Amino acid sequence: MGTGTPAGGAFGAHLRALRTGAGLSQEELAHSAGVSVRGLSDLERGRSRGPQRRTVQALAAALRLDPAAARELERLASPGRPRPAGAKTARPTAGTVGASGATASKPRPAGAVAHHTLALPRDLSDFTARGPALDRLLALVEDLDPARPPVAVVCGQPGLGKTSFAVHAAHVLAPHFPDGQFALDLRGMDPRPVAPRDALARLLRASGLPEDAVPADTEDRAGLLRSVLRERRVLLLLDNAADEEQVRPLLPGHGPSLTLVTSRHALAGLEAVHRTELALLRREEAVELLTRIIGPERVLREAQAARDLADLCGHLPLAVRIAAQRLASRPGESIAKLATRLAAQDDRLDALRAGSLRIRAAFDLSYRQLGEHTRTVFRRAALASGPDFSPETAALLAGLPPRRAARCLRDLADAGLLQPHPTSDRYRFHDLLGLFAAEQAAEEDTPADITAARTRTDTWMLRRAAAAAQLFNPDHRPGDPCGDPDPATAPAGHEQAHTWLDAERAQWLAALHRAHAAGRHRQVLDTAEAMHWFSDRVLHWELWAEVFRRGVDSARALDSRHEEAVHLNYLSWAQDTCLHDHTTALTTARTALEAARAVDDRLQTGWALNYAATALIGLGRTEEAIAHLHRAADSLGGGSDTQSRFAELSTLNTLGRHLRQTGRAAEALAVHRRSEALCREDLPGQPHELLGLYLASARQHIGNDLAALHRWNEAEAPLRHAVTRFETAQMPAWSETARLDLGITLRHLGRTEEARETLTAAHANLSRLNNPRRLEAADHLRALEALDPAAPHAGTA
Asked: pTM score, two decimals?
């Protein structure tokens, strides 16, 4: 084995025995030791040479071997360490210089590596995770084609450990490149990065060329480097690249080499490269890194605090390392103490400092590289509400034209300072970068600048939100002016409006709160009134109670009793339907009734009685509720205007439902048939869509009335109509309850498989909506399972 044959037999068998004895899988040991699964598998099977000493040490640590066992593992590994068989010896031609500085007439001995000034930096003994990324690089090496020497670009946001990963990978892959490993810092974040000409000179000298053999011209130097590397198995690590122009002249053109390039920029213009975009650590990986630095005993004592600390570091490797190094330097300090300090956001970046390691410094390095407009977009974007933001929000906050702001956002994503959404045109901050951006805004923008940015953005957002919501108003006609701040980009139609309102809901909701606080009450009322038309589409949004509460407050501030009644009714609906708070909803409805009667508003009186009845039903006071609904129907009956007609339809549908639920299904069917007939009556100027939705609701009730009367065959058709109509309108809170009703009917018709399929879909969708009827769906699925125990069934709801 001392001649360079595989270490396999003894070492591989011993390593495998140690691993299985420890109860570890290959994946678990590879993860703990920071080696690739493929590499570990090759070692155990004897397919690779003896591992380097640092790899053996990492394996021993992961296996928790005592000193004697670790020495034995090292003894078995050492014979296989010479240069791997099959490595090519450089074949210098006359007049060239080998890697050791010898001329062609005196070839280098096989495996000899010259001393040079570009040696790899030291590897980190506590390097953690990145196994899949390392495996991909190993696969590149194993399939290396000298005609196309691979170039791997390692990129990602600041703090992801790009350099640490590249250095670790270079050490792991070093045995595959016996003709040399060279690491060159291109200083891409410096005011003056290393020029390609200077970088080429350093690489050529490290390759063994004397100073006087290095050409003066950059292109000549690049050509000579390609010639020198043509038949050498060399690994180049080009760290911290500034841009593509800096890197291109340094790349080999042919030969069995591997080039690793790290950069804070994506280097998207670099052709024919393999990309390794590092992601954040998983939570368990972040805790593992913490464990390797401060020791397992401290982590085991405070396991939950360690997980909390990893979360507060945002699973960013640099942040976790800084926190761990700080703890390592203070052995008596608890993990919980540091986690508590990091939980205070105002102090988090200050706390992430250990000696010369500072998270803020890593971020600042990238920030200072940005142009003026891009810096403005970065820091002002921290003012956005919600987990992510759109280019239009960034443009408004920065006070820049949309196209310029969009370019700045792309530059920020390329620099790793923002994370673009994979499918939509939206961006988000890593938590720590968001804190850093907010700091820069506080330092570089005046309070007046920030107030102006927010007011400008809020005004635009509320106008757009109100215009989008108004598209759901049944009186709205295509082409009607809608008050959108930018008609050229305004949502067209329900689908686009729904998508925009959903994506921007955190932004327009925060704008609504700030408008109320600033006393812009007419703007609040206009927005809340418009949202009323949209709210029925997304009953599961709990924010409606916030929206209509602000509407009530603003109506009172403007001393508008009519608008107070309107928004109290909206609020009662939201409290009952969205929050399921029946007691509060009843109190609110009664307050709405008082306000409506004070101004003799029959429409709002009818709605208040309707909402009070709904709340009473939720409280189990059914007879009171039915009495309220009869009074509401009397108040609303005979109205010929749009709003009175819809209020009457809503009241009749609700009245019939509660009659059915009290065992009076025949009465309920008569009420719902009356509602169905009203939907078919002419309503001048009224579009068919909303009437179609009321008709679908009436037919869902008719189907349930017929089911309650055990007329199952008649119930199916109206229920199918309701499901289809609500699905077409993209109203899942409505379509899924109708689907559940249809599934129940199918079950009673004995169509078991069709019933199971329908009920399973209803259960899954109602669970996503957190609708209480998901429990009912689960009960019916369990009833089907009792008939056929082998069939799939719903889990606990």
From this structure: 0.72
